[in-house]
Amino acid sequence: MFHQILRPTLLFGSLLVSSISPSVTAQPPDTRALLDEAREISYQAHWREAQAILDQLAPYIDQAGLREYADYQLLQARHLALDDQTEQSLALADQLLERNLEPDQRLRALQFRANIAVLLRRYEVAFESLSEALDIEVDVDDPQPVIATLNMAAYMFGRAGEYERGAEYGQRALALARETGQAQDACIALQRLAPVYKWAKQYEQAKQTYREGISTCGEVGNLLFAGVHRHGLADLLRRDGDPEAALLLSEQSIEALDDGVFTLGEFEARLIRAETLQDLGRLDQRWDEELQQLNVYFTDRALWDQSARLHQLKSERAAAAGDFELALEQLHAYNEARESFLGRERSMRLAYLQVEFDSSLQRQQIELLRETARAAQLEARASAQQQRLRTFGWLLAALIVLVLAGILYRLQVSRRRFQELSRIDGLSGLVNHTWFFERAQAELDRFNGDAGNSGRIVLIAADIDHFKQVNDEHGHRVGDRVLGRTARRLQETFPEDALVGRIGGEEFAVLMQVDDVNHAIGFIERFRNTDQKLMRAGDPPVTISFGVSCAKPEDDIQTLRNRADQALYAAKASGRDRYEVDSSCGI
What we know:
- It is a single chain.
- By secondary structure, this protein is mainly alpha-helical.
- The chain has helices at about 1-5, 30-45, 45-55, 65-80, 85-95, 105-120, 125-135, 145-160, 165-180, 185-200, 205-220, 225-240, 245-260, 265-280, 290-300, 305-320, 325-380, 385-420, 435-450, 465-475, 475-495, 515-530, 555-575, and strands spanning about 455-465, 500, 505-515, 545-550, 580.
- The protein has a five-stranded mixed sheet with strand order 2-3-1-4-5, sandwiched between helices.
- A hairpin with a 4-residue loop joins strand 2 and strand 3.
- Helix 7 (about 125-135) runs antiparallel to helix 8.
- The longest helix is centred in the middle third of the chain and has 58 residues, at about 325-380.
- The two termini are about 50 Å apart.
- Mean pLDDT is about 80; it is low at about 1-25 and about 355-375.
């Protein structure tokens, strides 16, 4: 999230105070001194105070040296992003990178460009900037640019699922900051490293790192980042069943982030507070307006991971109040937000793979060009052996063509593989939410368009009963094992031509064509009678509820799904571990 990636620069709308009256500023200011002061205030106090200093420098900055000009624009870019003008800040970074910057400043500009590109979901731009930044060697007394690059790599590789690589970069940044006595940079490095451990599910390591971050950031007076560490730790303590400690930390975090005018971090901390209050049974009607504010903020900014958590909270709250219809509605909203978030994660992962692949291809092409140049030199030097070298040249050209053809073939294969990865749910091996409903709609259209078809199209919605309790009591690893076992049993039980997918956290769906609805019910019964016999030792027993609906000629897949969900809800309300058939099936 924003607080996990924003370090080397971010801007305010005065980018472009064009002039100040000469009568007011007769003497040019000390540009270097004012820039250093503005940078210190921007990171240690409040960026709006720093922006006032930049406004004083605006009329003179075009006459300053390139180094001062670059530092000025990087601070401007930081303030634009903090003022929610991310498109303008990215454009400013692009313009700055067109200049012939010194290595350390080019490094900072690339860091900033990568940060903002992640915020704007332009992941290929982000990884291209990171790749270039990692290749830059900076030989300066100030280690901060190198530390900042390592921090950025830690976040981005961790977010792309390369946890080991992300943790390695984060540990290198932290070690360099401590080795050079840069306590402020150590505070930032800990804030980048802790989420990587959390994403890798190394929760004890994550908690230790968050606590160390709170202490280190507090010692250097960086209350903003100490607040970020606090709400990260609060989230983990809440999951570990220590809500009172989590509530205290989230309250402290909200206060610090509000003082620092870090709105996104504040809203994330407010969500953790709401979840903790729900755990404690204190989330009453007085918090309705707060939940509505959170919903508007996360939805408007397409923050789907936070939006999914909020809908899950509302579903649990409605279920506890006995409003099962609202609980089901919020559960559907949770699934949609979660799928959007996973789609963004897949996009980032695919962008990383694409940039890695393109970099490898580029290196191979460069090497091929070098080989071609060497062949040309040999031909020029050995004119007496021209005929033999000509033959050699043709052979080399043929070899190059063959190698390039092989590279292009591997590129096509890799692209097809990336496409397959975007359609498959990594945990269960089934088709994911998006691809399931695209294929289901196509199958429904095909069936309705063929007058010679007999039988019926049936959609079965399946949901593991009390799955949250499985995760809470046995841990997510066992929960993941239960999901995998359920997916395998569904594939083994239902016919090969049935479409089986995982469409939500613990929710599955099956679309199939049958001669009679009772055939579909027979497959459900077969699954229910065999699933528990194949449990792995130590796995908790689980049951599954099913809802069955049958397609009508005028149905689209969403209408068919809504009826299956209603039948599933009826099965849940009737005690779970059973199936219910919608009236559309006529039985």
